[in-house]
Design brief:
The chain is an alpha+beta fold and about 90 residues long. It has one domain: YlxR-like (Hypothetical Cytosolic Protein, Chain: A), CATH 3.30.1230. The chain is built from two helices and five strands; from the N terminus they run βββββαα. Strands 4-3-5 form a three-stranded antiparallel β-sheet, with helices on one face. The protein is globular, with a radius of gyration of 14 Å.
């Protein structure tokens, strides 16, 4: 019997448009019930999501593209929180 290989889900980064494994990306979600924008660490929150690489270059590009992806305006504090999250991942 051979071991079955699980397919690793891939998602496209909003910033660089490259496909990468889902677990390497940060998910931003517009919560279905409230319309609130949140960073989804679990990847399981219900709502419309977008993914971004943990890099400053992708974040800069994503600032222009993210509102269209989530179909709403993104508060500046979300981008600040993303910068902090990326700093944590670099350490």
């Amino acid at each position: 019997m051979s071991a079955t290989l699980r397919k690793i889900p891939e998602r496209k980064c909003v910033g660089c448009n490259e496909k990468k494994p889902k677990n390497e990306l940060i998910r931003i979600v517009r919560v279905a019930d409230t319309g609130e924008i949140q960073i989804d660490a679990t990847g399981k929150k219900n709502g419309r999501g977008a993914y971004i690489c943990p890099s400053a270059a992708c974040l800069k590009k994503a600032k222009k593209r993210l509102p269209a992806s989530l179909e709403t305006q993104i508060p500046e504090e979300i981008f600040s929180a993303l910068e902090l999250e990326m700093e944590k991942l670099e350490k």
